[in-house]
Amino acid sequence: MKLIADSGSTKTDWVCINADNSIQPVEAHTVGLNPFHMSDDEFRQVLVRDLLPQLGDVEITDVYFYGSGVRPEVEERVTGLLREAFPGAQTIEAHSDMLGAARALCGRTSGIACILGTGANSCVYDGCKIIHNTPALGYIIGDEGSGAVLGKHLIHDIYTGVLSQRVRNMFEQETKLKLSDIIDKVYRQPQPNRFLASFSEFIHRHLDDDGIREMVYSAFSDFVNLHLSRYGRPELPVSFVGSIAWYYQIQLSLVLQTLGYHVGTILKSPLEGLITYHQDS
Prior knowledge:
5-stranded mixed sheet, alpha/beta, Nucleotidyltransferase, domain 5
């Protein structure tokens, strides 16, 4: 039986595929397994303590792990940790979340694959491997179009007066936050990127406001102009995975079409596409 994992920094979703390619009703969920932030012992404990009990006596023959932080230089390390948990597996692979997104969105055909969630990333995929990737750089100096950067723009535009007093009043009433609270969360508390990305819900609720809508269009235009245009492949379909792409797909599609790109598939989560990819393998 094949075991597929889609791992972010917050959570990991695991699903099993039977030998006849039917989906096993066993699903498992654990915390995120990011090798950049976790020691081997921490990673190992999640597998042994949290994952294996959920799988029960299911016999795993193949493991395909896709996760944030799985850069080429740590693939062997992650594969080794998975091998400890599944010593009887014939095949164990660990790959980046970007390759997972590309396989989920494009399958075995060429295309541009993008992640737009809390963070942002993109690549050119040739149907087998990633052949070009502009670095994401994180929300402080990159991640254009991501939830964290949308939230950053919202806070900036509210408190510098770019957005109207009406928007500021709505924001403070709905979030119950003051500027001092925001400064504390961003500069003194952990995971400010997730805090900023949480404001995407407010943004989405108020897309009827001209200023907010223009801010969203501008963020997505930055993503296209600073990342997709660097690939020089406007003939390829551009596909997306992630919560921001999913909930803002109308605005995102409009920006892409205006700038001369063809929109391919948009998925909220890569897991569905990864299941299809590995059922066909």
